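User: tokens in, sequence out, please.
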């Protein structure tokens, strides 16, 4: 898969930078053309000479080329690359990528890149486990970049644990797997809903839930990677969506209903992962509700069920998938929703499972089909769960 591919390899400061030499050799052996960008501090770990000899190309570090008086164009490098692999990726460069900081050639090239970006983090156990690092890893995935997870084992510090950059052979394998053109959803229109809704009672207060939208965004990224034309209708979420996905932001359940029903008739596959509020305040006060001496009761009215409405008007050939978040009698409740909403498949999340459900980066789901077939998946990252769900959908559609 890597034959004749133009691979841009970014190397940052980490003891694992020595593995970049093996990585270059393996890319060349696979028939790829390789160019390397080294950050200044990475030169303390691996020399430009080693990498340029192995890659048979000059190694880039600075914007300005002292010898020729010219400059190394980040735009040209980014345009040249078919894939951009950053391995090892340090915690520092990772944080800068997330924030859009661009104070060296590697980061400027990253910001200019339009090709798929793979990243292989490498750092010490404590650093790797810090919530901010995990959050940054997740943010990069949510931008559509592909994580090559760090492995476990003995670290350079002498500590044992997670944080070791994946071995070069496995990095190549994972990239090859991803590089297989996947057109399983080409020509298909995919509608996905994600995130919470907000039901306002006055201009400053609302009813909502903890949904982060991560599951829906992961599904949208994966569906568009498979060639699908993806529309993502999402409630208020912090995540940024990649340009390959058409995002339609909404706030309330009513707005989500209108947006989803607009795209529904032309959609081939519909996956409703949004946590839509079932009720909204009966009245929306024009100005802020003031406190009084007595208690306050809030009258709520039912919101329309988007998924149910779709199930009732579904045409032949449309594939409708819902989510069920349950806390008890999980399978029984999920099955009821599958039948009452006339779904082809329901994805069951149980809040009893550790690491699953709202605002986690992992999820543990069971896929239940109309036929009664069931597939229980282990705890995985939401990107991997998205892949499994779409694998199943694609297998059924073909
Ligand atoms: N859903 C929807 N519109 C609503 C409520 C839910 O489209 N107004 C969709 C969700 O996106 C999800 C599925 O229906 O795919 C199930 O949502 P869930 O909240 O688990 O079920 P409800 O039918 O609302 O039932 P309950 O809250 O009582 O479990």
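Assistant: Sequence out:
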């Amino acid at each position: 898969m890597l034959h004749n591919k133009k691979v841009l390899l970014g190397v940052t400061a980490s003891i694992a930078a020595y593995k970049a030499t093996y990585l270059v050799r393996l890319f060349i052996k696979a028939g790829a053309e390789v160019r390397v960008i080294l950050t200044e501090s990475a030169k303390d770990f691996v020399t430009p000479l080693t990498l340029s000899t192995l890659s048979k190309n000059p190694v880039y570090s600075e914007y300005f080329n002292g010898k020729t008086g010219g400059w190394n164009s980040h735009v040209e490098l980014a345009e040249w690359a078919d894939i951009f692999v950053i391995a090892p990726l340090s915690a520092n460069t990772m944080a800068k990528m997330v924030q859009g900081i661009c104070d060296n050639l590697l980061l400027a090239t990253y910001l200019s890149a339009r090709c798929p970006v793979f990243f292989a983090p490498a750092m010490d156990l404590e650093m790797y486990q810090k919530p901010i690092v995990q959050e940054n890893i997740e943010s990069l995935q949510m931008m559509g970049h592909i994580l090559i997870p760090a492995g476990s084992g003995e670290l350079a510090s002498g500590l044992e644990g997670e944080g070791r950059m994946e071995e070069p052979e496995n990095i190549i394998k994972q990239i090859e797997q991803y590089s297989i053109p996947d057109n399983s959803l080409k020509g298909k229109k995919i509608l996905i809903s994600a995130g919470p809704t907000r039901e306002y009672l006055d201009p400053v207060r609302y009813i909502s839930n903890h949904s982060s939208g991560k599951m829906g965004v992961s599904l949208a990224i994966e569906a568009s990677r498979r060639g699908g034309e993806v529309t993502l209708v999402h409630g208020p979420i912090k995540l940024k969506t990649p340009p390959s996905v058409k995002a339609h932001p909404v706030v309330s359940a009513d707005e989500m209903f209108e947006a989803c029903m607009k795209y529904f008739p032309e959609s081939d596959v519909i996956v409703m992962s949004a946590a839509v509020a079932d009720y909204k305040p009966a009245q929306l006060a024009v100005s802020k509700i003031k406190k009084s001496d007595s208690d306050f009761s809030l009258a709520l009215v039912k919101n329309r069920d988007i998924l149910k409405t779709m199930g009732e008007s579904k045409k032949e050939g449309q594939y409708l998938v819902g989510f069920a978040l349950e806390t008890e009698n999980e399978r029984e409740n999920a099955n009821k929703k599958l039948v009452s909403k006339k779904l082809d498949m329901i994805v069951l999340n149980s809040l009893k499972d550790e690491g699953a459900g709202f605002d986690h980066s992992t999820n543990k789901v069971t896929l239940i089909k109309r036929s009664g077939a069931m597939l229980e998946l282990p705890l995985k990252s939401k990107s991997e769960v998205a892949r499994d769900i779409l694998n199943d959908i694609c297998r059924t559609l073909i």
